Amino acid sequence: MELRTLGQSGTPVGEIGYGAMGLTWAYGEPIRADREADAIALIHRAIDLGVTLFDTAEVYGPFTNEELLGKAIKGKRDQVVVATKTGFVPQPAGAPLRRDGQPEVIKRAVEGSLRRLGIDVIDLYQLHRVDPNVPVEESVGAMAELVAAGKVRLIGLSEVDVETLQRANAVHPIATLQSELSLWTRDALPEILPWCKAHGVGFLAFSPLGRGFLTGRLAQRDIAPTDFRATLPRFQGENFDRNHRLVEQVEAVARRAGVTNGQVALAWALAQGENVIPIPGTKRIAYLEENVGAANVRLSAADLAELNALEAPVGSRYAAT
Ligand SMILES: NC(=O)c1ccc[n+]([C@@H]2O[C@H](COP(=O)([O-])OP(=O)(O)OC[C@H]3O[C@@H](n4cnc5c(N)ncnc54)[C@H](OP(=O)(O)O)[C@@H]3O)[C@@H](O)[C@H]2O)c1
Question: In sequence order, what DSSP letters do the residues of 25-41 get, joined into one string?
Protein backbone atom coordinates (compact mmCIF):
# COMPACT_ATOMS: atom_id res chain seq x y z
CA MET A 1 0.00 0.00 0.00
CA GLU A 2 1.21 3.51 -0.71
CA LEU A 3 2.09 5.76 2.17
CA ARG A 4 0.75 9.12 3.26
CA THR A 5 2.00 11.21 6.17
CA LEU A 6 0.35 12.37 9.36
CA GLY A 7 0.47 16.00 8.28
CA GLN A 8 3.56 18.10 8.84
CA SER A 9 4.89 15.56 11.34
CA GLY A 10 6.07 13.56 8.33
CA THR A 11 5.16 10.29 10.08
CA PRO A 12 4.41 7.81 7.27
CA VAL A 13 1.35 5.56 7.43
CA GLY A 14 -0.38 3.23 4.97
CA GLU A 15 -2.88 5.38 3.06
CA ILE A 16 -5.79 3.38 4.45
CA GLY A 17 -5.84 2.99 8.22
CA TYR A 18 -8.02 0.88 10.50
CA GLY A 19 -10.54 2.13 13.05
CA ALA A 20 -10.95 -0.40 15.86
CA MET A 21 -14.05 1.12 17.51
CA GLY A 22 -16.62 -1.35 16.17
CA LEU A 23 -14.72 -4.34 17.53
CA THR A 24 -15.92 -3.67 21.07
CA TRP A 25 -18.28 -0.71 20.94
CA ALA A 26 -21.15 1.03 19.20
CA TYR A 27 -22.07 -1.44 16.44
CA GLY A 28 -23.79 -4.72 17.22
CA GLU A 29 -22.38 -7.21 19.67
CA PRO A 30 -18.92 -6.37 20.99
CA ILE A 31 -16.20 -8.98 20.51
CA ARG A 32 -16.03 -10.91 23.77
CA ALA A 33 -13.18 -12.91 25.28
CA ASP A 34 -14.09 -16.13 23.45
CA ARG A 35 -13.70 -14.38 20.06
CA GLU A 36 -10.76 -12.20 20.98
CA ALA A 37 -8.37 -14.37 18.97
CA ASP A 38 -10.40 -13.64 15.82
CA ALA A 39 -10.13 -9.90 16.39
CA ILE A 40 -6.39 -10.17 17.00
CA ALA A 41 -6.02 -12.21 13.81
CA LEU A 42 -7.90 -9.49 11.93
CA ILE A 43 -5.52 -6.81 13.21
CA HIS A 44 -2.55 -8.99 12.27
CA ARG A 45 -4.00 -9.43 8.77
CA ALA A 46 -4.35 -5.64 8.51
CA ILE A 47 -0.66 -5.26 9.40
CA ASP A 48 0.26 -7.89 6.78
CA LEU A 49 -1.72 -5.92 4.19
CA GLY A 50 0.21 -2.73 4.88
CA VAL A 51 -2.12 -0.99 7.31
CA THR A 52 -0.02 0.83 9.89
CA LEU A 53 -2.37 3.40 11.46
CA PHE A 54 -4.67 1.91 14.13
CA ASP A 55 -7.22 4.18 15.76
CA THR A 56 -8.89 3.57 19.10
CA ALA A 57 -10.06 5.61 22.13
CA GLU A 58 -10.23 5.31 25.89
CA VAL A 59 -14.01 5.59 25.73
CA TYR A 60 -14.53 2.74 23.23
CA GLY A 61 -15.80 -0.02 25.45
CA PRO A 62 -14.92 1.84 27.64
CA PHE A 63 -11.33 0.62 27.89
CA THR A 64 -11.84 -2.74 26.14
CA ASN A 65 -10.88 -1.41 22.71
CA GLU A 66 -7.49 -0.17 23.86
CA GLU A 67 -6.95 -3.43 25.74
CA LEU A 68 -7.72 -5.51 22.66
CA LEU A 69 -5.53 -3.39 20.38
CA GLY A 70 -2.77 -3.61 22.99
CA LYS A 71 -2.89 -7.41 22.90
CA ALA A 72 -2.88 -7.44 19.10
CA ILE A 73 0.17 -5.20 18.69
CA LYS A 74 2.26 -7.01 21.28
CA GLY A 75 5.56 -7.88 19.59
CA LYS A 76 4.63 -5.73 16.57
CA ARG A 77 5.17 -2.26 18.01
CA ASP A 78 7.59 -1.21 15.29
CA GLN A 79 5.05 -2.00 12.55
CA VAL A 80 2.19 0.16 13.84
CA VAL A 81 1.30 3.78 14.50
CA VAL A 82 -1.03 3.88 17.48
CA ALA A 83 -3.67 6.60 17.68
CA THR A 84 -5.95 6.92 20.68
CA LYS A 85 -8.15 9.60 22.18
CA THR A 86 -8.99 11.33 25.41
CA GLY A 87 -11.59 13.90 26.40
CA PHE A 88 -14.70 11.81 27.01
CA VAL A 89 -15.17 10.49 30.52
CA PRO A 90 -15.67 6.73 30.31
CA GLN A 91 -19.20 5.79 31.36
CA PRO A 92 -20.88 2.44 31.89
CA ALA A 93 -22.06 0.94 28.60
CA GLY A 94 -25.09 2.74 27.23
CA ALA A 95 -24.78 5.83 29.43
CA PRO A 96 -24.56 9.18 27.64
CA LEU A 97 -21.02 10.41 27.02
CA ARG A 98 -19.70 13.36 29.01
CA ARG A 99 -16.83 15.54 27.80
CA ASP A 100 -14.01 16.46 30.15
CA GLY A 101 -10.97 18.26 28.77
CA GLN A 102 -9.47 19.45 32.03
CA PRO A 103 -5.66 19.22 32.01
CA GLU A 104 -5.57 17.02 35.11
CA VAL A 105 -8.08 14.60 33.60
CA ILE A 106 -6.07 14.32 30.37
CA LYS A 107 -2.80 13.78 32.22
CA ARG A 108 -4.39 11.02 34.28
CA ALA A 109 -6.09 9.42 31.28
CA VAL A 110 -2.87 9.00 29.32
CA GLU A 111 -1.46 6.69 31.98
CA GLY A 112 -4.42 4.32 31.60
CA SER A 113 -4.21 4.38 27.81
CA LEU A 114 -0.48 3.59 27.85
CA ARG A 115 -1.07 0.73 30.27
CA ARG A 116 -3.95 -0.81 28.33
CA LEU A 117 -2.14 -0.46 25.00
CA GLY A 118 1.01 -1.92 26.54
CA ILE A 119 3.26 0.76 25.04
CA ASP A 120 5.47 3.47 26.50
CA VAL A 121 4.56 6.23 24.06
CA ILE A 122 1.35 6.98 22.14
CA ASP A 123 2.13 7.94 18.53
CA LEU A 124 -0.94 10.15 18.09
CA TYR A 125 -2.96 11.40 21.07
CA GLN A 126 -6.22 13.03 20.03
CA LEU A 127 -8.68 15.20 21.88
CA HIS A 128 -11.90 13.29 21.15
CA ARG A 129 -14.09 16.38 21.58
CA VAL A 130 -13.39 19.85 22.91
CA ASP A 131 -14.96 20.36 26.34
CA PRO A 132 -17.14 23.50 26.11
CA ASN A 133 -16.17 24.35 29.68
CA VAL A 134 -12.41 24.19 29.11
CA PRO A 135 -10.61 26.43 26.58
CA VAL A 136 -8.99 24.26 23.92
CA GLU A 137 -5.66 25.94 24.73
CA GLU A 138 -5.75 24.35 28.19
CA SER A 139 -6.55 20.84 26.95
CA VAL A 140 -3.95 21.02 24.18
CA GLY A 141 -1.50 22.59 26.62
CA ALA A 142 -1.81 19.48 28.80
CA MET A 143 -1.28 17.27 25.74
CA ALA A 144 1.82 19.32 24.85
CA GLU A 145 3.18 18.60 28.32
CA LEU A 146 2.72 14.91 27.59
CA VAL A 147 4.78 15.35 24.41
CA ALA A 148 7.49 17.06 26.46
CA ALA A 149 7.35 14.18 28.96
CA GLY A 150 7.87 11.62 26.16
CA LYS A 151 4.47 9.95 26.67
CA VAL A 152 2.97 11.16 23.39
CA ARG A 153 4.59 11.84 20.01
CA LEU A 154 1.94 13.80 18.11
CA ILE A 155 -1.25 15.67 18.98
CA GLY A 156 -4.53 15.49 17.08
CA LEU A 157 -8.03 16.92 17.42
CA SER A 158 -11.41 15.53 16.44
CA GLU A 159 -14.52 17.24 15.07
CA VAL A 160 -13.46 20.87 15.47
CA ASP A 161 -13.86 23.96 13.30
CA VAL A 162 -11.13 26.10 11.73
CA GLU A 163 -11.09 28.63 14.56
CA THR A 164 -10.46 25.89 17.12
CA LEU A 165 -7.76 24.38 14.91
CA GLN A 166 -6.03 27.76 14.73
CA ARG A 167 -6.20 28.28 18.48
CA ALA A 168 -4.89 24.79 19.19
CA ASN A 169 -2.17 25.00 16.54
CA ALA A 170 -0.88 28.15 18.21
CA VAL A 171 -0.26 26.17 21.40
CA HIS A 172 1.36 23.12 19.81
CA PRO A 173 1.60 21.84 16.21
CA ILE A 174 -1.52 19.82 15.42
CA ALA A 175 -0.58 16.76 13.36
CA THR A 176 -4.07 15.57 12.46
CA LEU A 177 -7.74 16.34 12.55
CA GLN A 178 -10.06 13.34 12.79
CA SER A 179 -13.55 14.12 11.52
CA GLU A 180 -16.36 12.39 9.69
CA LEU A 181 -15.85 12.45 5.92
CA SER A 182 -17.67 10.29 3.43
CA LEU A 183 -19.93 10.44 0.42
CA TRP A 184 -22.83 11.37 2.68
CA THR A 185 -20.92 13.62 5.09
CA ARG A 186 -19.05 16.37 3.29
CA ASP A 187 -19.20 19.10 5.93
CA ALA A 188 -15.38 19.36 6.08
CA LEU A 189 -14.92 19.98 2.35
CA PRO A 190 -15.60 23.72 1.99
CA GLU A 191 -13.37 25.11 4.77
CA ILE A 192 -11.88 22.61 7.16
CA LEU A 193 -10.11 20.28 4.74
CA PRO A 194 -8.60 23.19 2.72
CA TRP A 195 -7.34 24.72 5.98
CA CYS A 196 -5.77 21.40 6.96
CA LYS A 197 -4.09 21.10 3.57
CA ALA A 198 -2.74 24.63 3.76
CA HIS A 199 -1.37 24.14 7.28
CA GLY A 200 0.14 20.67 6.97
CA VAL A 201 -2.51 18.95 9.08
CA GLY A 202 -3.37 15.37 8.19
CA PHE A 203 -7.07 14.48 7.96
CA LEU A 204 -8.22 11.14 9.36
CA ALA A 205 -11.57 10.47 7.69
CA PHE A 206 -13.75 8.64 10.19
CA SER A 207 -16.84 6.60 9.27
CA PRO A 208 -15.74 6.72 5.60
CA LEU A 209 -18.23 3.95 4.79
CA GLY A 210 -21.06 5.91 6.37
CA ARG A 211 -20.98 3.51 9.34
CA GLY A 212 -21.63 0.68 6.88
CA PHE A 213 -24.59 2.28 5.10
CA LEU A 214 -22.79 3.24 1.89
CA THR A 215 -21.63 -0.33 1.25
CA GLY A 216 -25.23 -1.32 0.51
CA ARG A 217 -24.81 -4.35 2.77
CA LEU A 218 -26.48 -2.88 5.84
CA ALA A 219 -30.19 -3.55 6.33
CA GLN A 220 -32.29 -1.67 8.85
CA ARG A 221 -33.17 -4.95 10.56
CA ASP A 222 -29.42 -5.42 11.29
CA ILE A 223 -29.49 -2.40 13.60
CA ALA A 224 -30.50 -3.57 17.07
CA PRO A 225 -32.05 -1.01 19.45
CA THR A 226 -28.79 -1.03 21.43
CA ASP A 227 -26.69 -0.29 18.32
CA PHE A 228 -25.38 3.30 18.37
CA ARG A 229 -26.67 3.78 14.81
CA ALA A 230 -30.24 3.40 16.13
CA THR A 231 -29.77 6.86 17.71
CA LEU A 232 -28.69 8.51 14.45
CA PRO A 233 -31.44 10.21 12.40
CA ARG A 234 -30.10 8.98 9.02
CA PHE A 235 -30.64 5.39 10.08
CA GLN A 236 -34.09 5.89 11.61
CA GLY A 237 -37.55 5.11 10.27
CA GLU A 238 -38.23 6.08 6.70
CA ASN A 239 -34.97 8.08 6.47
CA PHE A 240 -33.13 4.79 6.07
CA ASP A 241 -35.18 3.85 3.01
CA ARG A 242 -35.09 7.34 1.54
CA ASN A 243 -31.31 7.38 1.85
CA HIS A 244 -31.09 4.15 -0.07
CA ARG A 245 -31.14 6.08 -3.33
CA LEU A 246 -27.58 7.20 -2.46
CA VAL A 247 -26.53 3.55 -2.25
CA GLU A 248 -28.03 2.96 -5.69
CA GLN A 249 -26.10 5.89 -7.14
CA VAL A 250 -22.84 4.68 -5.59
CA GLU A 251 -23.61 1.22 -6.92
CA ALA A 252 -23.89 2.56 -10.47
CA VAL A 253 -20.35 3.95 -10.24
CA ALA A 254 -19.09 0.76 -8.57
CA ARG A 255 -20.53 -1.45 -11.28
CA ARG A 256 -18.92 0.64 -14.01
CA ALA A 257 -15.55 0.61 -12.24
CA GLY A 258 -15.79 -3.12 -11.49
CA VAL A 259 -15.35 -2.61 -7.74
CA THR A 260 -17.59 -2.63 -4.67
CA ASN A 261 -19.58 0.24 -3.19
CA GLY A 262 -17.30 0.37 -0.18
CA GLN A 263 -14.25 0.63 -2.41
CA VAL A 264 -15.87 3.52 -4.27
CA ALA A 265 -16.53 5.28 -0.96
CA LEU A 266 -12.92 4.81 0.19
CA ALA A 267 -11.39 5.73 -3.18
CA TRP A 268 -13.52 8.90 -3.17
CA ALA A 269 -12.22 9.77 0.31
CA LEU A 270 -8.61 9.18 -0.81
CA ALA A 271 -9.23 11.44 -3.80
CA GLN A 272 -10.16 14.39 -1.57
CA GLY A 273 -6.50 15.18 -0.89
CA GLU A 274 -3.07 13.72 -0.26
CA ASN A 275 -3.47 14.54 3.43
CA VAL A 276 -6.63 12.40 3.79
CA ILE A 277 -6.31 8.98 5.42
CA PRO A 278 -9.58 7.05 5.71
CA ILE A 279 -9.87 4.79 8.77
CA PRO A 280 -12.65 2.28 8.00
CA GLY A 281 -13.57 -0.28 10.64
CA THR A 282 -14.78 -3.85 10.39
CA LYS A 283 -15.05 -7.05 12.40
CA ARG A 284 -14.50 -9.25 9.33
CA ILE A 285 -11.31 -10.17 7.51
CA ALA A 286 -13.09 -10.35 4.14
CA TYR A 287 -14.30 -6.76 4.52
CA LEU A 288 -10.87 -5.65 5.72
CA GLU A 289 -9.24 -7.12 2.61
CA GLU A 290 -11.82 -5.47 0.40
CA ASN A 291 -11.36 -2.11 2.13
CA VAL A 292 -7.58 -2.23 1.82
CA GLY A 293 -8.05 -3.12 -1.85
CA ALA A 294 -9.60 0.33 -2.34
CA ALA A 295 -6.06 1.72 -2.26
CA ASN A 296 -5.68 0.34 -5.80
CA VAL A 297 -8.91 1.87 -7.11
CA ARG A 298 -8.56 5.04 -9.16
CA LEU A 299 -11.87 6.70 -9.97
CA SER A 300 -12.14 8.58 -13.26
CA ALA A 301 -12.86 12.30 -13.34
CA ALA A 302 -16.37 11.44 -14.60
CA ASP A 303 -16.93 9.04 -11.67
CA LEU A 304 -15.74 11.64 -9.17
CA ALA A 305 -17.98 14.27 -10.73
CA GLU A 306 -20.96 11.91 -10.48
CA LEU A 307 -20.17 11.15 -6.85
CA ASN A 308 -19.65 14.83 -6.05
CA ALA A 309 -23.12 15.50 -7.40
CA LEU A 310 -24.86 13.04 -5.04
CA GLU A 311 -27.76 14.57 -3.17
CA ALA A 312 -27.48 15.22 0.54
CA PRO A 313 -28.87 12.46 2.77
CA VAL A 314 -32.08 12.76 4.75
CA GLY A 315 -31.43 13.21 8.48
CA SER A 316 -28.60 14.78 10.44
CA ARG A 317 -25.37 12.99 11.39
CA TYR A 318 -26.09 12.90 15.10
CA ALA A 319 -29.21 13.26 17.23
CA ALA A 320 -29.75 16.81 18.48
CA THR A 321 -28.61 15.96 22.01
N1 LIG B 1 -13.55 10.73 16.30
C2 LIG B 1 -14.78 10.30 16.37
O3 LIG B 1 -15.64 10.91 16.99
C4 LIG B 1 -15.15 9.01 15.67
C5 LIG B 1 -16.50 8.67 15.47
C6 LIG B 1 -16.79 7.49 14.79
C7 LIG B 1 -15.75 6.67 14.34
N8 LIG B 1 -14.46 7.02 14.58
C9 LIG B 1 -13.33 6.19 14.13
O10 LIG B 1 -13.48 5.85 12.74
C11 LIG B 1 -13.44 4.44 12.59
C12 LIG B 1 -14.30 4.01 11.41
O13 LIG B 1 -15.60 4.53 11.51
P14 LIG B 1 -16.88 3.65 11.76
O15 LIG B 1 -16.48 2.32 12.30
O16 LIG B 1 -17.81 4.51 12.53
O17 LIG B 1 -17.57 3.52 10.33
P18 LIG B 1 -17.20 2.91 8.92
O19 LIG B 1 -15.79 2.50 8.87
O20 LIG B 1 -17.74 3.89 7.96
O21 LIG B 1 -18.16 1.64 8.89
C22 LIG B 1 -18.03 0.56 9.75
C23 LIG B 1 -19.21 -0.35 9.51
O24 LIG B 1 -19.17 -0.77 8.15
C25 LIG B 1 -19.15 -2.17 8.04
N26 LIG B 1 -18.19 -2.50 6.97
C27 LIG B 1 -16.87 -2.28 6.96
N28 LIG B 1 -16.33 -2.68 5.80
C29 LIG B 1 -17.35 -3.17 5.06
C30 LIG B 1 -17.43 -3.73 3.77
N31 LIG B 1 -16.36 -3.84 3.00
N32 LIG B 1 -18.64 -4.17 3.34
C33 LIG B 1 -19.75 -4.03 4.11
N34 LIG B 1 -19.73 -3.49 5.36
C35 LIG B 1 -18.54 -3.06 5.82
C36 LIG B 1 -18.71 -2.69 9.38
O37 LIG B 1 -19.32 -3.93 9.60
P38 LIG B 1 -18.68 -5.12 10.47
O39 LIG B 1 -18.08 -4.46 11.68
O40 LIG B 1 -19.84 -5.98 10.77
O41 LIG B 1 -17.66 -5.79 9.68
C42 LIG B 1 -19.22 -1.61 10.35
O43 LIG B 1 -20.56 -1.85 10.71
C44 LIG B 1 -13.90 3.91 13.94
O45 LIG B 1 -13.50 2.59 14.13
C46 LIG B 1 -13.22 4.87 14.88
O47 LIG B 1 -11.86 4.51 15.03
C48 LIG B 1 -14.16 8.18 15.22
Answer: SSSSSPP-GGGHHHHHH
